[in-house]
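stage 2 :: seqdesign
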């Protein structure tokens, strides 16, 4: 065994994870969601498709007996995981922005409806 986990454990798990991520990316194509959300999640999906095999390699094929290779592969894996997390935070920020915009539109719509109803009631009361 070279790495921390045998390849016969990490490879099937990595393949299953890749299939799930790819299915998610395909399903998002036809999803009814704002374009900004779709772009961020697609970018993060592709980033995860790169990260999963690197993690499988880091856990199974790289040994601490070769310190340079071990450090390089794990540094890349940690960097990719960090980028996935950054993209998740970007998605959170985008969702908060979209929610604020939707709330502002709702307030404007309800405000204008309320004003028109009050104006109609005011005309009825005057008549």
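stage 2 :: out
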């Amino acid at each position: 065994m070279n790495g921390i986990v045998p390849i016969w454990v990490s490879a099937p798990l990595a393949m299953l994870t890749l299939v799930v991520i790819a299915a998610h990316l395909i399903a998002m194509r036809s999803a009814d969601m704002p374009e900004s959300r779709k772009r961020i999640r697609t970018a993060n999906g592709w980033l995860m498709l790169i990260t999963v095999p690197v993690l499988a390699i880091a856990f199974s094929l790289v040994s601490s007996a070769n310190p340079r290779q071990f450090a390089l592969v794990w540094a890349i894996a940690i960097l990719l995981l960090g980028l996935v997390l950054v993209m998740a935070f970007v998605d959170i920020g985008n969702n908060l922005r979209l929610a604020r915009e939707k709330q502002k539109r709702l307030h404007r719509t309800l405000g204008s409806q309320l004003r028109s109803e009050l104006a109609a009631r005011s005309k009825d009361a005057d008549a």
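stage 3 :: structure notes
- The chain has one domain: 7-126.
- The chain has a mean pLDDT of 93.
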